[in-house]
Design brief:
The protein is elongated, with a radius of gyration of 23 Å. Helix content is 41%, strand content 17%. It has 324 residues and is of the alpha/beta class. The strands form two sheets. The protein has a six-stranded parallel β-sheet with strand order 2-1-3-4-5-11, with helices on both faces. Strands 7-6-8-9-10-12 form a six-stranded mixed β-sheet, sandwiched between helices.
Length: 324
């Protein structure tokens, strides 16, 4: 073969490669990843999601593509972001970073499968018909955080029995705040504690909330469930330590960031399970046939070993179909 003919043939093949790559990408299933949180602090959770996907045989850029939509704490943006993913005709939507993401996805489509990771009761919020038989286009993981505020307060009271005035940090912009506040207030009244509710929906407001707690001489703190707070877990743990306010949190990663203690599941494992469910959908499973996975555990920071009678651990229950 002459050199010129070889170069011409090589050039033609080289020119064809990008088209082949684009054709391959076009045939890949596309996942819509919708989150109300911030991408930077949630990077470890997104990585856990991809580990779950990989366990089912899917790797981004190899045999699947992912369209990311982050609301960055501005939950009002979620409906528009969900609508973008529907217009993109993604194969499945992974709705993470709070109940608001799941509700936005559910409102945007009745046909595209939705895999959620929520801390609230998905039946109560209309995401599924039941935990065992979701019945529609959505299923996922319920990591049982929003309903544990009273238990978190009780454990904090046992650890700091002299506490009289307890702060409750909540985000006024998310739907679960009202329920969390009501539950903690009722539990506090039952054991004779006074609750001071402080609010924050951005980093500067967290700083202001701690100044209020210090001014009001709060003896302890319960941090309410919120994806934004989870993204600021290092800031919260640092401020609680700086102001010597014993605090209880709702996911294990707070304790890993230096917080005193947490009662709740591992967010990392929750995202991994969402990734596994996403992979099952891509393989042909139907959301209506996948029971909602429920998880709960108690975790403590190593800087404060728990009393023996509080050293409990509730194992994940994803292998059994719930009965409700």
């Amino acid at each position: 073969m002459r050199r010129r003919e070889f170069i011409t043939l090589l050039g033609g093949a080289a020119a064809a490669w990008p088209f082949a790559a684009r054709a391959q990408q076009a045939t890949m299933p596309v996942i819509g990843f919708l989150s109300g949180a911030l991408p930077g602090p949630y990077a470890p959770f997104a990585a856990a999601y991809h580990r779950g996907l990989k366990e089912t045989g899917y790797v981004e850029g190899v045999n699947t593509a992912v369209e990311y939509r982050w609301a960055e704490g501005e939950v009002d943006r979620l409906p528009a972001l969900a609508a973008e993913l529907v217009r993109r005709q993604v194969a499945v939507i992974a709705a993470t970073g709070g109940i608001s993401s799941a509700l936005a996805a559910k409102a945007a489509t009745t046909t595209i499968p939705i895999i959620f990771g929520v801390s609230e009761d998905p039946v109560k919020h209309g995401l599924v018909a039941s935990l065992a038989r979701p019945g529609g286009n959505a299923t996922g993981v319920n990591f049982l955080v929003a309903e544990l505020g009273s238990k978190q307060l009780g454990l904090l009271h046992e650890l700091v029995p002299a506490a009289v005035r307890v702060g409750l940090l909540v985000n006024p912009r998310i739907p679960q705040t009202e329920t969390a506040t009501r539950d903690v207030a009722a539990a506090a009244s039952a054991i004779g504690l006074q609750i001071d509710v402080v609010e924050a929906s951005e980093s500067r407001e967290i700083e202001a909330a701690f100044r209020t707690l210090v001014r009001n001489r709060a003896d302890a703190l319960v941090v309410g469930p919120d994806p934004f707070f989870a993204s600021r877990r290092l800031q919260l743990a640092t401020l609680a330590t700086r102001h010597t306010i014993p605090a209880v949190y709702n996911i294990r990663e707070y304790a890993e960031a230096g917080g005193l203690m947490s009662y709740g599941t591992s967010q990392t494992e929750t995202y991994r399970q969402v990734g596994i469910y996403t992979g099952k959908i891509l393989k042909g499973a139907k959301p209506a046939d996948l029971p909602v996975c429920s998880r709960a555990s108690l975790s403590w920071s190593s800087i404060c070993p728990p009393p023996a009678h509080l050293a409990l651990k509730f194992l994940p229950r994803c292998s059994r179909a719930p009965t409700r």
